[in-house]
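Protocol check, entry for the methods section draft. Step 1: assemble the input record (protein sequence plus ligand SMILES). Step 2: submit for complex structure prediction. Step 3: store the structure tokens unaltered in the notebook. Ligand used here: pyridoxal-5'-phosphate. Step 1 record:
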Amino acid sequence: MEEKKIMAQAESHILHTYNRYPVVFDHGQGVYLYDTEGRKYLDFAAGIAVQALGYGDEEYNQALKLQVDKLLHTSNLYYNQPTMEAAGKICAASGLDRVFFTNSGTEAIEGALKTAKKYAYEKDNCTDHEIIAMNHSFHGRSLGALAVTGNAHYREPFEPLPGIVKFADYNDLDSVKALVNDKTCAIIMETIQGEGGIYPATQEFLCGVKEICEKRDILLILDEIQCGMGRTGEMFAWQGYDVKPDIMTCAKALGCGVPVGAFVMTEKVAEASLKPGDHGTTYGGNPFVGAAVSKVFELFEKRGLTEHVREIGAYLEEQLELLQAEYDCITARRGKGLMQGLELAIPVGEVSKRALEQGLVVITAGSNVLRFVPPLVIEKEHVDEMIGILKKIL
Ligand SMILES: *Cc1c(COP(=O)(O)O)cnc(C)c1O
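Step 3, stored output:
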């Protein structure tokens, strides 16, 4: 009854901002989680697209243990080796030039927005610049990140929010064009919308937006917090479009379980935006998370994870489409690689709840989408196991 006790503790002391599923996870191994009662779960959520390497990875864990004993934290007033190495790996993988480490995705968004504002301010000394964001987007819960999140339900109670933000429709280039003017300093979007319901950008849309940005010296900010880090079969989803952002944001799988994010930019933007004193963080990019990020990039490369995702992602996609053909309640499949969504005509929360009862962790996105963001190390047999459980429920 350990489980009931822990849940009761949570209900009396934790701020009630989540309706949690009635399960207490205790440990994980590979792509499976185990609860305090010893039940086993196949994990197709990965802690919301975080645990790309799955659980209990020997090499990753060992690197962290070594760093714990060596040095956890020093502040950013000094240099440290693991984090400097990690920054180099992010730049090498992205072709971008400068990294600022944060503790979360939300903070990465804040930093990206500040960078865009400062870049525009440096040009004309004005502070009335506008940002274009997308409807149904999700960028985080701080006031700045919320200001560019295209979900009225999340935003309304906290308005007025900072900045002048206008919302366009995702994958509708004309709706973006209609909002662009001389005051526009940035266009921000997810390369694949996650929380909004797994909507990949179309090639025409992303290219079209990039073209507008280039023509008018507007900064393109691509939020890769969920879709980045190999999830689509490219290290960063935008690499599959041949469109390079001026700034990208990372978090979630960047540290594979330790709280770390980053905003990353081109040299051109870096030179003309944030200067010493303009931005800072106490924890951000400390040696501990630096060691994690550095090891994550090393393991991704050593194990050929992006190639693995292309192979397994194609298989997952195929199996989800077969499922769709079999069940009328599945109205659409969308996604790329190991970031997939099934749109359902039945209550999606109920499906997710019943899946958990059957030993499958799968989460929702938007109001009617079942979201599949498993550890990137899953194999075909795990896809088959997941499909088998889903069939029982549907
Ligand atoms: C999760 C997420 C965020 C926010 O990241 P946190 O680490 O929760 O602050 C921002 N953008 C996208 C696309 C996300 O999926």
